[in-house]
Amino acid sequence: MRSWIGVVAVVALLGCTNKLGGDLTLDGEKVEIESCRNGSVYGFRGVEVSAKSGARVRVAATPTGEAHVFVMPKGAETGVELGACGSFQVADQKSTVNDVRNVEGKASLDCSAKGIAVKGSFTFENCH
Q1: What's the domain range around 60?
Q2: Structure confidence at residue 71 (pLDDT)
Q3: Burial group, residue 88, by CB count within 10 angstroms (0-12, 13-18, 19+)
Q4: pTM for this model (two decimals)
């Protein structure tokens, strides 16, 4: 019985782990993405990725499949809107964590506005 409980706990833990990949730069500096959240937590269809530096990049889906991008520098409470500047795919996964459905997808960005530039692409899974 104990071994099954341990297996269930390990499977649940692995199902919650973000899977992130790609190559993204913010103002010419490589971004090391460490986590992601489903955009629905913040009121939009998409994903927010957080960098080890503390910066966050929000990518919202548009009806045309474009990526609408916002950058939140480290410590900022509000973001800088860069607009539609790339392609974006997001899909719901079957799993949920704390009543938030996980999402997966990919973004390819080439954005520049208001003195901020975001370029590159990344993939994401298990973002809740």
Answers
A1: 2-127
A2: 98
A3: buried
A4: 0.86
Read off φ and ψ for residue 21, nearest 5 degrees. -155, 170
What does the pLDDT read at residue 4? 39
* Residue ranges of the chain with per-residue pLDDT less than 50: 1-14
β-bridge pairing 100-113 and 116-127: antiparallel
* pLDDT of amino acid 77: 87
Q: 105, 32, 109, 42: which is closest to 69 by C-alpha?
A: 109
Rounded to an integer, what distance in angstroms lies between the CA atom of residue 26 and that of residue 108? 13
Nearest to 50 by CA among 60, 62, 35: 35
Question: Structurally, how many domains does the chain consist of?
Answer: 1
Which single residue is written with the structure tokens 């103002």?
A: 27
pLDDT value, residue 15: 53
Q: What is the spatial distance between Cα 123 and Cα 114, in angstroms, rounded to a whole number? A: 26
User: Residue 41: what residue type?
Assistant: V
- The kind and range of the H/E element at 14 are helix 2-16
pLDDT of residue 122: 98
The identity of residue 6, as a single letter, is G
Which residue matches tokens 């992601």?
Answer: 36
